[in-house]
Amino acid sequence: MAAGKNAAAKILEQKGYACIDADLAGHTAVENAREKIFEHFGKEAEKRGILLKNEDKSVNRRALGAIVFESLALLSELESIVYPETERIISNFIEENKKRPEIPGVVVNAAVLYKTPNILSQVQFILYIDAPLILRYFRARKRDRLSPLKILSRFARQKDLFAKYQNSNADIQRVWNTGSIKHLEKKILKILASLERPSL
Question: How far is Cα 26 from Cα 179, in angstroms, rounded to an integer?
């Protein structure tokens, strides 16, 4: 969170890569699976007096988050519904783009890609964008206007991510994003120059 992965993805997109944002794919997956979500979490939402369904019949993701992020068990249940659909969406994007001769590669912009093992198994190279905790904290405060407690809670849920990716079969390069966008771009382009046909 707030390390700069979206900035890195934008740099790669500007260099011609086909990019998909796993968070946005997840949002689409939530809507595709909304009937299952309403059925599975409807009683819990009703018990808490939470409206899980928006007026347009879409999922109220803020309300859903209020339910599942307080319980690892409920979060796991939601992931079991949403992640298979997220994997399908991202896999389709990869298949549609990986053979296009005019692009240098396909980029999946994701923080918790290890939770979608079928996608991770297709990855050849990982750019792990990182930054010191204190810098990420102030970036998150400025960007998201969240309370300190919520930011630290989200940081805690993403603890030891690098170790999880080190266990994958993909090559991995840690990129420290501590300066400007131009500085980050310089680092990324240096890595890309050392690869024949990189994918993220």
Answer: 30
